[in-house]
Design a protein that fits this description.
Blueprint lengths: L7 E4 L1 H7 L4 H8 L3 H8 L7 H11 L3 H4 E4 L8
Antiparallel strand pairs: 1-2
Helix pairs in contact: 2-3
Protein name: Cro/Cl family transcriptional regulator
Keywords: DNA-binding
Pfam families: HTH_3
């Protein structure tokens, strides 16, 4: 059975996209995914693969940690 550590990843893809004056569709085409993928990512309902996160960061010419933030949960076995 898979443990749920409660880890999460937040992002500011929306902010970067708006500053670049791009639509969700334009960004999606640039990084090779669907508009729906960008939409759910911006809403916080989808954690991208490492490859996609790197593509997005590379597109905006920033470090991946400038767009994606990892928050560590806790190990349930330590409770």
């Amino acid at each position: 059975m898979k443990k749920d550590f409660g880890d999460s990843v937040s992002n500011n893809v929306y902010e970067h996209r708006v500053l670049a004056k791009m639509s969700q569709m334009e960004l999606a085409k640039k990084v090779g995914v669907s508009k729906q993928t960008i939409f759910v990512m911006e809403k916080g309902n989808y954690v991208p693969s490492l490859l996609l996160a790197l593509r997005i960061a590379n597109f905006f010419e920033v470090e991946v940690t400038e767009i994606f933030t990892y928050s560590k949960g806790s190990d349930p076995s330590e409770s």
